[in-house]
């Protein structure tokens, strides 16, 4: 119910994670169709970059305004910080304040004078401005750091490297907000360098009890996790895509022309394969480097045909091996019979 500086930076991190989710799934999904030359109707979805910019912009962002207040000489309070936000962010469509000059909120009695509200991706959140400046300062006196660095315990000494007299820095230590912002930037860089897989967990109720399904709670989670946009983009596009080479390698045994070896380009082989299987044209599209399959049922059909074909091939291999084994045994017995007969005739 009461959100302060800690909840503010947690929600900022959630916004950044939602932004990278949008970039790596929804945006990449649509860009791939354009890149592959697939006919595609653009699906509009909300990009929360505007909310991230409201918080982290180096000039007009809330964190920048907070740092500026912490470093400004003179009397600095939480109220002066809120006044500064009202001056800089008043016209932003995702920022609301009772003291804002924007007439929309002058009659909003649900918003106290000492609070501001941000319309996050997941919904509106009201923050109590009290304590923002003190919590952001996060100052540790230099002599305390030096005293800790001189401790005989190796772990304590390692936790306070700034206390080393050889590394004394007269500059003001970074604020908590700027440190958190740098940590989030490092996290985003690590995620972009990887290939993340998302697991979305949905709570059916707040009591963690069995057989209780709170529809409003589930719908709220589906909305703020971005699942609706993801489903809309997926349903409007293609459920499965794969480069031509591995696709042909996996399903080539389903067509006599491509089995066991296809000598031409992989795309031509996939076209021959799909024509042979008589898959409806509306169920797939050929991109520049990939085959796109619209409906999962088509993919399941291919997998079932492949499974049956593998069983048939295994039976064929087993049949040929048994025939070879029996013929080898027969030829060996025939040769032995000739030797025995020749020796018997000689004896007789």
Automatic annotation (TrEMBL):
Residues 184-206 are annotated as: Actin-binding. This is MYO1B protein. Keywords: Actin-binding, ATP-binding, Calmodulin-binding, Motor protein, Myosin, Nucleotide-binding, Repeat. Belongs to the TRAFAC class myosin-kinesin ATPase superfamily. Myosin family. InterPro entries: Kinesin_motor_dom_sf, Myosin_head_motor_dom-like, P-loop_NTPase. SUPFAM superfamilies: P-loop containing nucleoside triphosphate hydrolases. One of its GO terms (biological process) is endocytosis. One of its GO terms (molecular function) is ATP binding. It comes from the Eukaryota. The gene is Myo1b.
């Amino acid at each position: 119910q009461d959100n302060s500086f800690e909840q503010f930076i947690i929600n900022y991190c959630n916004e950044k994670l939602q932004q990278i989710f949008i970039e790596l799934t929804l945006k990449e999904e649509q860009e791939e169709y354009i890149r592959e030359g697939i006919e595609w109707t653009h699906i509009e979805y909300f990009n929360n970059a505007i909310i991230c910019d409201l918080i982290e912009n180096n000039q007009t962002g809330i964190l920048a305004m907070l740092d500026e207040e912490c470093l400004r000489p003179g009397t600095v309070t939480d109220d002066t910080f809120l006044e500064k936000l009202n001056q800089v962010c008043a016209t932003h469509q995702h920022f609301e304040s009772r003291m804002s000059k924007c007439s929309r909120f002058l009659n909003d009695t649900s918003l106290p004078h000492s609070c501001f509200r941000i319309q996050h991706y997941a919904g509106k959140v009201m923050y109590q401005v009290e304590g923002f400046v003190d919590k952001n300062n996060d100052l540790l006196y230099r002599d305390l750091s030096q005293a800790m660095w001189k401790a005989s315990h190796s772990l304590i000494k390692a936790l306070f490297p700034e206390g080393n007299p050889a590394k004394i820095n007269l500059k003001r230590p970074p604020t908590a907000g700027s440190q958190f912002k740098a940590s989030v930037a490092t996290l985003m860089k690590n995620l972009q360098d990887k290939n993340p897989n998302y697991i979305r967990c949905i709570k059916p109720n707040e009591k963690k009890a069995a057989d209780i399904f709170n529809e409003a709670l589930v719908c709220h989670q589906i909305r703020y996790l971005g699942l609706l946009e993801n489903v809309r983009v997926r349903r409007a596009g293609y459920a499965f895509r794969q480069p031509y080479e591995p696709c042909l390698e996996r399903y080539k045994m389903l067509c006599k022309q491509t089995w066991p070896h296809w000598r031409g380009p992989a795309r031509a082989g996939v076209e021959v394969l799909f024509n042979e299987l008589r898959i409806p044209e509306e169920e797939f599209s050929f991109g520049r480097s990939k085959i796109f399959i619209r409906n999962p049922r088509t993919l399941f059909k291919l997998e079932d045909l492949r499974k049956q074909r593998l069983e048939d091939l295994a039976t064929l291999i087993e049949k040929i091996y048994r025939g070879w084994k029996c013929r080898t045994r027969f030829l060996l017995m025939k040769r032995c019979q000739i030797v025995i007969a020749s020796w018997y005739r000689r004896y007789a």
